[in-house]
Write a structure and sequence with these properties.
Distance between the termini: 18 Å
Number of helices: 7
Shape: globular
Strand order of the largest sheet: 6-7-8-3-9-10
Mean pLDDT: 88
Strand content: 25-35%
Oligomer: single chain
Order of helices and strands: EEEHEEHEHHHEHEHEEEE
Structural class: alpha/beta
Radius of gyration: 18 Å
C-alpha cells in the first residue's frame, strides 16, 4: 500500500545563538492510509518536532518528508499552507484557539478558509461535530470562558471539521478526564474505520497507545529499538507490520 506520509533520514536542528540543538537525528518511517499510529517517547525525544514536520508546520534541516507524495522542502509557503488546509488536521497541545472568536467560529474557521461549503452546510457540519464532542451548548462561548478540557475538545472539533485525510494530534487527551478522553478516542477510531482517516498521535497516554495499530518509539531524536508495548499487543513497525 502506498505511503501517505514518508519520512526518510529526517534531521532537524535548531540554532540557539551559537549553539546547534539537534531535535531529530535521521528518522525514517512510512505511514499508510488508514493507519492509527502513536508516537511515544519521553519529553524532549522529538515527538512534537516530528509531528510539526509531517504537518508542514516546519521543514527538515536535511532528509525528506513527503505528504501525499509531495516533498515539503520543495514547496513554497503558499503550497505548504494549501497542503495543511486541505489535507491535514492538527490538534495542538496548546490548543491555538482564536480568543476573539466563539467556539462555533473557531471550529468553522477552516471551512471558511477552504471556501468549499455554503453557510448552511458549514453550520450543519460544525453543529454536528460540536454535538459529538459534547459542546453544542457552548457554541457561543469564547475560549476564555471554557475549561482546559473544553478548549481541547474545541481544538479536536476544529481539526476534524474539514474531514482531513491526516489528523496529527499532539497529546490530544492530556487535558481530558478519562470518560471524555475515551469518548474522543472512540470518535477518532470511528472516523479511522469509516472515513479511512489516518491518525498520528504524539502521546504518553496508555489509552491512546492501546488503540494504536502501530507504536513508534523515539528517544533522543532517533527511532528507539522496538520492544514489548506492555499493552497486550505487539509493538508494531510503521505501516502496521509486527515488529
Amino acid at each position: 500500500m502506498k505511503a501517505i506520509v514518508s519520512v526518510k533520514d529526517a534531521v532537524k536542528n535548531y540554532t540557539l545563538g551559537t549553539v546547534v540543538v539537534p531535535a531529530l537525528r535521521g528518522v525514517t518511517l512510512d505511514v499508510v492510509e488508514g493507519d492509527f499510529i502513536a508516537i511515544a517517547g519521553p519529553s524532549g525525544s522529538g515527538k512534537t518536532t516530528l509531528l510539526n514536520l509531517i504537518g508542514c508546520v516546519d521543514t527538515p534541516t536535511s532528509g525528506t518528508v513527503k505528504v501525499e507524495g509531495k516533498d515539503t522542502r520543495e514547496l513554497s509557503e503558499r503550497q505548504l499552507t494549501t497542503l495543511r488546509l486541505h489535507t491535514i488536521g492538527f490538534i495542538f497541545q496548546s490548543f491555538n484557539l482564536v480568543s476573539v472568536l466563539s467556539v462555533f467560529q473557531n471550529v468553522e474557521l477552516p471551512l471558511l478558509l477552504q471556501r468549499k461549503l455554503s453557510g448552511p452546510d458549514r453550520a450543519q457540519r460544525v453543529t454536528a461535530l460540536l454535538d459529538r464532542v459534547g459542546l453544542r451548548e457552548h457554541a457561543s462561548h469564547r475560549p476564555s470562558e471554557l475549561s482546559g478540557g473544553q478548549r481541547q475538545r474545541v481544538a479536536i472539533a476544529r481539526a476534524l471539521v474539514t474531514r482531513p485525510g491526516i489528523v496529527l494530534a499532539d497529546e490530544p487527551t492530556a487535558n481530558l478526564d478519562s470518560v471524555t478522553g475515551q469518548h474522543i478516542l472512540d470518535l477518532m477510531k470511528e472516523l479511522n474505520r469509516t472515513e479511512k482517516t489516518t491518525f498520528i498521535f504524539s502521546t504518553h497516554d496508555q489509552r491512546v497507545m492501546a488503540h494504536a495499530n502501530a507504536i513508534i518509539r523515539l528517544a533522543d531524536g532517533k527511532l528507539a529499538d522496538a520492544g514489548p508495548s506492555g499493552l497486550g499487543q505487539p509493538t508494531m513497525q510503521p505501516g502496521g507490520t509486527p515488529a
